[in-house]
Prior knowledge:
By secondary structure, this protein is of the alpha+beta class. It has 2 helices and 7 strands. It has a 5-stranded antiparallel β-sheet. A two-stranded antiparallel ribbon has the order 6-7. Strand 6 and strand 7 form a beta hairpin. The longest helix has 22 residues. It is globular, with a radius of gyration of 14 Å.
Amino acid sequence: MSDFSKYLVKDYKYWHLSVHPNQGYLGRCVVWCKRQDALDLADATVEEREELLIILQSLRGAMKKVFRADWFNYAFLGNETRHLHGHFVPRYSSPRQFHGIEFVDERWGHNWQTDEDFISTPELWGAVRLKLIEALKQS
Length: 139
């Protein structure tokens, strides 16, 4: 599992919630299962699945409130990292401004795709992280 500790938004009983270092999609996050032997979503226990849904519902609410996200993509791929984790990708039908940057979801209405050329600075993902920490405290 990758070290996402510096990106940590919230620690749960079975999961870690972190901002993704690439913020090409404003608010993109990753949920990591704490159990080391969990490889994919089908390995999740009943308790892990129940908590995961609570996390995703809370995160969805926070994204709507903080960044006015219009839709959400969820991806449990495991192609590069063989450990149970999922990508939470907010989608936007129109541009959003945050931290002096205009975010345009050029693939709105289509599958999301990581923009490897998008440069996320520690200041940017740190600001996203702080917004989400605060929003999740209120939920």
